[in-house]
Amino acid sequence: MDTQSAAAAVAVALPELVIDSASDTSHFFDNNTDTLVLHSSDNKESGKWSNLFLAYKTLGVVFGGLVTSPLYVYPSMHLDSPTEQDYLGIYSIMFWTLTLIGLVKYGCIALKADDHGEGGTFALYSLLCRHMNIGILSSKHSDLNSSQSRPALNGNDDQKSRLGKVFERSIVARRVLLFIAMLGTCMLIGDGILTPTISVLSAMDGLRAPFPSVSKSLVETLSAVVLFILFLLQKFGTSRVSFLFSPIMAAWTLSTPLVGIYSIIHHYPGIFKALSPHYIFHFFRRNGKEGWLMLGGTILCITGSEALFADLGHFNRNSIQIAFLFTIYPSLILTYAGQTAYLIRNPNDHIDGFYKFIPKTIYWPIFIIATSAAVVASQSLISATFSVIKQSVVLDYFPRVKVVHTSSNKEGEVYSPEVNYILMILCVAVILVFGDGQDIGNAFGVVVSLVMLITTILLTLVMIIIWRTPPLLVAMYFIVFFTMEGVYVSAVLTKIPEGGWIPFAISFILAFIMFGWYYGRQRKIQYELTHKIDLGRLGLLLSDTSVQRVPGLCFFYSNIQNGLTPILGHYIKNTRSLHSVTIFTTLRYLLVPKVAPQERIIVKKLGLKGVYACVIQYGYADSLNLEGDDFVSQVMDSLRVHIEASYGCLPSDLTQGQEEISELREAKIAGVIHVRGKARFYIGKNTSLFDRLMLAFYEVLHNNCRSALPALGVPLPQRLEVGMFYEA
């Protein structure tokens, strides 16, 4: 059985998997449960004023990277004696890039491909998984959240698209799709490292113009300090940060186009004739290969557009569209027009293309706003990184880092302490080691173009498989955007020796971590499916005279609802006992803020004396303490109610019920324990070197370095058995 097939089998046999990243426990929510309530991002905020207020807040989180791109676009270009026609061609390229990729692709199309209100590469992948029998998500799970997906869901399996059936049948196609999704996620995380560095470094570089004595190393040090403070603020949550940052971003968004209008009037009023696409054709005909290479800098005008999609979980579709259409897009068009108008009259000032075009009378106010805005720009990709890490953890493609929900009414607003500090260290390292803004710009261009291309591919699959878009429209979309972004990618790949290798190195390390985790998890799933214990087997184990039912109450946490985890067999084999009252507990995560108290705990008898099943349902804003007295009391109360309801009204039935309730009380008094198993691999001598290395790496990620020894063939003292074994 291949890993993808095993994953699909689990999706059918088990409920949908969701990881509690703060613990070592896997959680589930049932595909068929009536208590599952999903809500889309469009329904979370209602009313015109609410959307306008949210649109204002998006300025401080979503659009920082995009709207501050004028700081570094022209300085990142390798221009050699540019002419007026060159600048007109460059502006025409930037205008149509912003219009087609920013406005049409992301603003109008990508935002509709949400997955439970979440956006980004892995959101697209999980959306595809849910509509095909691939990955670890069940295709039978009803997507009540995405309005765009409903038409596809209303049909039956016989009406699946041919392409969807290809993915279901072909393991190669499934692996390619997974690789594309992983690469896009890793590149976006790389974007989260490079955006803060280039934004802050470019803004702080403005100190060197009025103060020539300020050294480059001082600018780099100040930039590192600013980023250090920014990352320390992340723990307060996106809402608080956006409330603080939105006024700064509003000031930037309004001031730079005003400067642009002044520059247009003062330097080159006819700049908007460059909106004609024929300037693009003349530019490439005149410059040839050099013009093609300049695309590596031009692509930076659209940087941060992926955050527009990836940050969808922090806000909603309407608010992002309003902010982009009415503020961000016109601001960028006017700012770049003003910069270009100035450079047409001062063609050799492109190395400092932003600060040079600022009038001296307002230089310092703009510098302060620019520096503050650069900090805000960093926030957009940091928030996007938190979102994609959370999605990857939820889909079980990333190690279980701690994910904290920082809002009680917004599921997508998350923060990860470990990821935050790793990003901080990497950002500061990139600034101090690769302080040259042009090298960072080269690396940045690689990330931006590849992420956009991957999003185009996944969106095309969503159109075909889920939305059932007419083939002509799909072809038009794919040809236009794949061609544009493919040309950009071909240009930026030439920058790999000049700093473009940085995101590839980061992405390779992240992809190796993700693949190692995924590989180990799939091997574990295969084992659990093969060796799961049913109630009949449990009865046989308990019938052994050497197995004692000891006094006490035991909560046995299991990942499997359709059957019992193999950990149980190892536990009984090694302890030769089972508690008089054993409750197999599964945690079920629901996409709601809080679960009603009466729906929080679901219990039932499993047919054996003293053996019960319990499902704990909780929302993202619920606190979860599984070992406190309150939790135990709530479960006991639910069991008592269930037992009373399960017996009839005859005196004999009532007596049996009271005896069972009395046994529960006695078990609680005797003592309460909680059992969580840790899975470890032990591989035989005939196992391939690849399997040994990958499973050892998984053990390092999941447990610790010592636990990797059995996977390499080195036995640990007192190991339980050869094969995959568990420690209870």
TrEMBL record:
Record's bilayer topology term: Multi-pass membrane protein
Main location: membrane
Annotated TM spans: 54-75, 87-104, 176-194, 214-233, 245-265, 291-310, 322-342, 362-382, 419-437, 443-467, 474-494, 500-519
Alphabetical UniProt keywords: Ion transport, Membrane, Potassium, Potassium transport, Transmembrane, Transmembrane helix, Transport
Location in or out of the cell: Cell membrane; Membrane
Every K+ potassium transporter C-terminal domain range: 551-726
Pfam families, alphabetized: K_trans, K_trans_C
Keyword Flavoprotein belongs to the record: no
Source species, domain of life: Eukaryota
InterPro entries reported in the protein's UniProt record: K+_transporter (IPR003855), K_trans_C (IPR053952), K_trans_N (IPR053951)
Domain (K+ potassium transporter integral membrane) ranges: 55-535
Functional description taken from the UniProt entry: Potassium transporter.
The family this protein is said to belong to: Belongs to the HAK/KUP transporter (TC 2.A.72.3) family.
Name of the protein: Potassium transporter
Organism, as annotated: Hibiscus sabdariffa (roselle)
